Each structure stands twice: as C-alpha cells, then as structure tokens.
Amino acid sequence: MRTQSILSLLAVATAVVAEDAPVIESNPIGAQYEALLKGKKDWSSLTGSVKIASAANGTGVSVEIALAGLPTEGGPFMYHIHEKAVPEDGNCTAAGAHLDPYKRGEVPLCDASKKQTCQTGDLSGKHGNITSTSFAATYNDAYLATLLSDPSYFGDKSIVVHLSNKTRIACANFKQLSPGNASTTASAGSSYGTALPTGGSHGGHNSTASATATSTTGAPIAPTASPTASPAQPPPGSGAAKVAVSGAALFAFVAALMI
Fold first, then answer.
1. Alpha carbon distance 73, 156 (integer Å)
2. Are residues 69 and 230 in contact, defined by beta-carbon separation less than 8 angstroms?
3. Residues 220, 213 contacting (CB under 8 angstroms)
4. Model's pTM, two decimal places?
5. Which of 30, 135, 215, 235 is deepest in the core (most CB within 10 A)?
6. 70/123 Cα distance (integer angstroms)
7. How many Cβ atoms from other residues are within 10 Å of residue 226's Cβ?
C-alpha cells in the first residue's frame, strides 16, 4: 500500500508542468487569416467575422472581431480559438478544447492582467467577454503566432462562440488570406480585411471598438501592436513558478517517506 501511494505521488510530481505563454516576436509580416461565423440551430441569426493578422512589427497579432445577432439571453458570451478545425458537417463540438500549447488549463479563470498566464486561445478571457447583442473590437494579442512551426499557431484551427454556460452557438475555421513574408521588414506593415462596424459595445480589457484605419489609397490598415518584453523565465508568483515549486516540494516529501 505504501509503495502504491509513493508511486501515485511520483506520478503527480512528474505530470506536465504548465508554462507561461511567451511573447511571439517573429511573426511573418503581412500574414492574414479570417474566419466567417454563422450561428447554429437556435442561433442562426448570429453572423460575424474574426480577422487576425501579424502585427506591423512582427510582435504578436492584431485581432478584429465583429458580431451581430447575438441572443438577448445567455450572456455574457465568450469566444476562443480551439485546438481543432470544424469538420464539414459544422459540428462545433468537434473543434475540441481551447488552444492551450503550454498546458495552462481552464481553471482557475484567466486573469486578464496577466495575459501570459492564460490559455493562448482564450481571447475573451484575455480581452473581455461580450455583453451585448452586437460587438466590434480591435486589439493586439502578443501571444498568437502566424508562423506555422510555432506552438501558438492558429491558422489551421477554429474560432468558437459560447453562451455563458459554455454551449457552443457558432464556430468557423480560419482561412489563410496571405502567408506573409518573414523577411519583410517591420516598417512595411500589413493591410487586410474590411472596416468593422462602429457602435458595438463590449466589456473587453485593453480593447477598443473601432473601424479599421485606411491608407491614402483607401486600403484598410491593420493596427500596430506595441512591443512587449518577454521575460527570460517565469516571474516570482507566476503559474509556472508555483507549479515548479510545488513539484520540488512533493519530491522532497516522497523522499522523506522512503527513508
């Protein structure tokens, strides 16, 4: 019995350790993706789009989201990037769990003041849930990748909209509009998509509902993200640091039992 208990403790101690998401600093300039949403079943009036492009300086991405026809009940509404694509039959459940390459998990809830500790795909957790029947927002996310080889790459995955009880009411796959060019300088910037509707309200953190700016030629310009420093190691008190400390303490406890 004692041996079984020790083995169980060792299994817990050697489990996958969660890490904070790193800031993505080398996204190909000009990479662009779009997902067109349509509500399922009782939520067929819901329509919208999510457009994500490499930030003009290659650090993270710029996100534009516009939704209309959300239900009058069931909010606040959440939206996340999920780990799998939606199959041809449109089954949102088949999209799997949230994009979470650093094994953070859904509990505890995302702390928007510490976005690096949240699941990479938890967009509403990091930037605010939706609290109205129409919604439009533009913001930067430093932790999503447009580089195929990066664990935080989302281009072959999907976006899912949920009721507050986690029911999936709309989903869509991302479509690549442009792969971008990793050799392009940051000053070249990027442009994509169409202007978002104005007037949408939202409860986002560090998000602003606004139309996309346009250049002198009339082409919309993706907003520029501000560079964010990436710590070399998890700061004291971070999720990764706490898990590492807990693992060390557990090993010490097991060693004591075996004496």
1. 31
2. no
3. yes
4. 0.68
5. 135
6. 17
7. 10
